[in-house]
Design a protein that fits this description.
six-stranded mixed β-sheet; four-stranded antiparallel β-sheet; alpha/beta; 10 helices; globular; binds adenosine-5'-triphosphate
């Protein structure tokens, strides 16, 4: 579904992604793991058209999306649930969800909204509340539901558990599993490597802007270097 080939990304004169290649097949959950600054978020941002690819190619469903604008990429079927949630703080929960569907003109938005409120009951309780007043965990659920409102074929999650209490992190993991069971394809960046590898069918390990290891989630979980450096055992 998604193919990234020999991608290079630079910020000004500094190159931070040095020719990575990866793929995500339809129905898979693929995780990108690695230390802070290894280049995971920059890779996601390039896929979503939020930073330019200096060179290389990104294709989605056979269509070249390299350096296309963010809104074109959303319309192509890719939605990002961004790091730090980035809900619209002064808009209500319902308004945030409506914003997620801004690319759509079909008649199913109201029923999708109901589905989201069923899937995340806390959002129904907070429907009219300003999103900025929700707790961190509630904002994460809102950011996930807002992303789903676009009816994406590929959902990208950037650090969904960042800054959340352990109980809420478990809820986020269960939510991602549920989204996968709905048939969505998932690309996940997660600092909680243990959770990411548990959820992932396949994973890539980033180090200093390069992919140094890839395999199934289970293979990486049992890889001695990954276990020592990223799983703490
Ligand atoms: P983290 O988990 O901390 O987000 P990451 O693996 O996602 O780490 P990136 O955020 O992609 O890594 O960062 C890769 C490199 O690019 C780092 O050296 C970082 O300092 C640099 N970088 C990221 N964003 C910018 C920016 N806007 N301008 C300049 N350099 C940046």
């Amino acid at each position: 579904m998604l193919t990234v080939s020999d991608l290079h990304v630079s910020y000004g004169p500094i190159e931070v992604i040095h020719g990575i290649s990866l793929e995500v097949k339809e129905g898979e959950c693929v995780a990108l793991i690695g230390a802070n600054g290894a280049g995971k978020s920059s890779t996601l941002r390039a896929i979503c058209g939020l930073v330019p690819a200096h060179s290389g190619q990104i294709t989605f469903d056979g269509q070249d999306i390299t350096n296309k604008s963010g809104h074109t990429i959303v319309r192509a079927g890719i939605t990002m649930c961004p790091e730090g949630r980035q809900v619209f703080p002064r808009m209500s929960t319902l308004q945030n969800l409506a914003m997620g569907a801004y690319t759509r003109s079909d008649a199913d938005q109201a029923s999708d909204l109901e589905d989201m409120l069923d899937m995340f009951p806390v959002l129904r309780e907070r429907a009219k509340q300003a999103a900025g007043t929700l707790s961190g965990g509630e904002q994460e659920m809102l950011a996930i539901a807002r992303a789903l409102m676009a009816r994406p074929r590929l959902c990208i999650f950037d650090e969904p558990s960042l800054g959340l209490a352990p109980k809420i992190v478990a809820d986020v993991g269960a939510t991602i599993e549920k989204i996968k069971s709905l048939g969505k394809t998932i690309l996940l960046v997660e600092q909680n490597s243990a959770m990411a590898l548990r959820l992932a069918d396949r994973a890539y390990l980033f180090e200093a802007g390069e992919i140094v290891l890839s395999g199934t989630g289970a293979e990486l979980q049992s890889h001695p270097e990954v276990a020592k450096a990223y799983l703490g055992h």
